Amino acid sequence: MPAIRPSSKRKAPPDGFADIEEDLLVFGNKMKDAQNAPTDNIPKHQAQWPVFQISHQRSRYIYELYYKKEAISRALYDWLLKNGYADALLIAKWKKSGYEDLCCLRCVQTKETNFNSTCICRVPKAELKGVQDVQCVSCGCRGCATTD
């Protein structure tokens, strides 16, 4: 007979989680809606864009709560990162100069592009003369260069 597992292996959230739990539930519901949305009439690469955008918004929300507003504790911030509420690698990039407005990590990975460079959305709009509609193929961003 298999061993009986405890009902939950996760540690209880630190103090202050109840204050932001409702906002995180809203992000969770948006994510479920985006994942369950029909993708019949759109290209394959565009079907993932809403998921990337909601993940970015949720990570930015937690980043601003901790670094900008100082509204949550370090213990709660670490717990949120550990339990997947925010993207720790993306937040690490936001702390570096020049990456404050980065939309996703795919835009700075040079291995996934044709010419081993960053994504077109990382080019400042002032340098894109004559190009009307610039949109990232991987996440749908229209420009995340810090100088825009």
UniProtKB/TrEMBL annotation:
Its main location: nucleus. GO terms for cellular component: spliceosomal complex. Keywords: Nucleus. The keyword Ribonucleoprotein does not apply. GO terms for biological process: mRNA splicing, via spliceosome. Pfam families: BUD31. It is found in: Nucleus. Belongs to the BUD31 (G10) family. PANTHER family: PROTEIN BUD31 HOMOLOG, PROTEIN BUD31-RELATED. This is G10 protein. The lineage of its organism: Eukaryota, Fungi, Dikarya, Ascomycota, Pezizomycotina.
